[in-house]
Amino acid sequence: MNFNKKIKSHLLIKTKKNLFLNTAGEHTSIFNGDGIDFKEIREYNSGDDIRHINWKVTARTKTPSVNTFNENKQLNIVIAYLNSGSIKFGSIRSKQDTMVETMAMLSAAALNKKDILSTVFFDKDELNFNISKKKQIIDQNIDMAYNLDSINNTIDYEKLELYFLNKIKKKSIVILIGDFLDIYQFKLLSKKHELMCVVVRDKLEEDLKLTGEFDFIDMSTLNEEKIYLDDTSIKKYNKLMQEHDTKLFGIFKKYKIKYKKIYTDDNVAKQLQLLLKR
């Protein structure tokens, strides 16, 4: 479809103006590069990050020791845009719009700090892969996202994990952007790469308040049916959504995956600041 040029221009201006893109330190990435550029092991000093303690060396030498890293390493950032039918939903604006804005801001942040940026679009398989150090890639990726056919699509998470394990050889910071309405473990992917997940949702789909009869279309399968929503079914649905996210975030915590939920009416830049500063 043809993407409205006025909306696209507004999105690019909004991305460039955001404060979190102007983080102090021209050569230090705003992304956490722990474990990507190992330097040496040395004796623990007061004030060192306890997450960097090397327990094997500490146990062998009986002296607390920590891993140290080069701080100004050029990082490999891989952003994955997860293209599914469900991202078309939105009560204020679509989840797709929020995902595109998230992708644009993260891309600009990486390029602004001279990191190596790769972008992959994925649903049942790889749709497109871009790697560039030039900021024109942001513009191209916005076009790509809006011209993808997301209707009648779902995410094959198993294939996605295998893709990153096999194609992205160098250890990278991998950021998945999607609505994560399916549960997947990401056990292997989180071991090979530093993984972050941006969960984009609309508040209405988590706190449903509509009652009455509706024609329901599943945008991932195009199945249609009439449904009647009363107070009992709404409570049951909302409870299932809460249980889904409890399980999803439990998996993220288990495998030490950084994550942030962003709603369609959120200030995207502020939410990304919270994610990247963790």
Structure in words:
This protein has 278 residues and is an alpha/beta fold. The chain folds into two domains: 5-25 and 73-276, 3-Layer(aba) Sandwich (Rossmann fold), CATH 3.40.50.410; 38-69, no CATH class. Helix content is 37%, strand content 23%. It is built from nine helices and ten strands. The strands form three sheets. The chain has a six-stranded mixed β-sheet with strand order 5-4-3-6-7-10, sandwiched between helices. It has a two-stranded antiparallel sheet with strand order 1-2. Helix 1 packs across helix 3 (95-112) and helix 3 packs antiparallel against helix 4 (136-147). The longest helix is centred in the last third of the chain and has 24 residues, at 231-254. The protein is globular. Mean pLDDT is 84; it is low at 21-28.
What Rg do the Cα atoms give? 21 Å
Q: Averaging pLDDT over every residue, what do you get?
A: 84
- Indicate the multimeric state: single chain
Number of strands: 10
> Segments where pLDDT lies below 50 for 5+ residues?
21-28
CATH homologous group name of the largest domain: von Willebrand factor, type A domain
The global form is: globular
Tally of structural domains: 2
CATH architectural group of the largest domain: 3-Layer(aba) Sandwich
